[in-house]
Design brief:
There is one protein chain. The protein is α/β, with parallel strands linked by helices and 279 residues long. The chain has a single domain, classed as TIM Barrel (Alpha-Beta Barrel). It is built from ten helices and eleven strands. The strands form three sheets. A seven-stranded parallel beta sheet has the order 1-2-3-4-7-8-9. It has a two-stranded antiparallel ribbon with strand order 5-6. Helix 5 packs parallel to helix 7. The longest helix has 18 residues.
Length: 279
């Protein structure tokens, strides 16, 4: 099994331990490479993202760790960058000029057409309240807005891979457990993945929710389809705790192999390369 991870957080954002604790956990697990990817600054403050003034310290700390552990593991510094609009997304000059090894494209916020945004990835009670307040309870409209933002992010580019590609399904399915089976949802996600394939962008299999909810993102049902589209995969734990750096990884590889996927992608000496799946 290819032991690496490029989607993880530390206490510079909403991770629960210093970056060094995650590095030590990755080394103990036998990883050949590991990336720290704190949530990017936003044009407003949140409790879970980097503050812009802390970015230099973040970059300096990962650089220190790279040197300190150079003989034990390849370390990389990334950032999970939110798409908010054409003026705030991974492609803008601020994020492109940061000395990052890679960038992750992500959608957490959805705009309701009136300039108001909601976090679709928060606790379900907040999701349900914001759905009512900002989208007047119209779940279809919210989901469509999520996929529209996701496709605009893909068009804008500026990132290496997409985080938790269909995560809207997590909270949306708690409102309506049939939503992912509807024809319109299927059409939206087909269009989204077709665009990803067209642009040649990689997609992570995000294992973070498996322990709690029994699901991964994208949903396992789409693995064969994405593979048929020629989309390249990487497997990430989106870890917020050092003990979970390798959580769900073996199962993700098993499911990918069952779907006919032959290779995944990892970083080696600073470059993305494909490697055969072996379990």
């Amino acid at each position: 099994m290819d032991l690496c991870n490029y989607h993880s957080h530390c206490d510079f954002c909403d991770g629960k331990a210093p970056a060094e604790a995650f590095v030590k956990a990755a080394i103990a697990a036998g990883f050949h490479s590991y990336g720290i990817s704190s949530h990017s600054p936003l044009p407003f403050r949140t409790s879970w993202s980097l503050d812009r003034e802390d970015v230099p310290a973040y970059l300096k700390e990962v650089e220190r760790l790279k040197k300190a552990y150079a003989h034990e593991i390849e370390l990389y510094v990334g950032m999970e960058i939110d798409y908010l609009s054409d003026s705030w997304n991974p492609s803008i000059a601020y994020f492109q000029e940061l000395p990052l090894d890679y960038r992750i494209g992500s959608v957490h916020f959805v705009e309701n057409g009136k300039g108001e945004i909601m976090d679709m990835d928060g606790p379900f009670d907040e999701f349900r309240q914001n759905l009512q307040n900002l989208f007047k309870g119209d779940l279809k409209r919210l989901v469509e807005a999520y996929f529209e933002a996701s496709m605009r992010m893909v068009e804008a580019g500026g990132f290496d891979f997409i985080a938790h590609a269909d995560k809207i399904a997590m909270n949306a399915s708690l409102v309506d457990n049939t939503i992912t089976e509807t024809p319109w949802y299927g059409e939206k996600i087909r269009d989204y993945f077709a665009l990803i394939a067209e642009k040649g962008i990689m997609v992570e299999v995000n294992t973070k929710a498996y322990r709690r909810l029994g699901i991964m993102f994208p949903n396992r049902r789409y693995f064969k389809w994405l593979n048929d589209l020629g989309i390249r995969f990487l497997v990430n734990s989106d870890s917020h705790l050092p003990d979970l750096v390798n959580d769900g990884r073996a199962l993700a590889f098993e499911w990918l192999r069952e779907a006919g996927v032959k290779t995944t992608v990892h970083l080696h000496e600073g470059k993305w390369e494909e490697v055969p799946i072996s379990i």
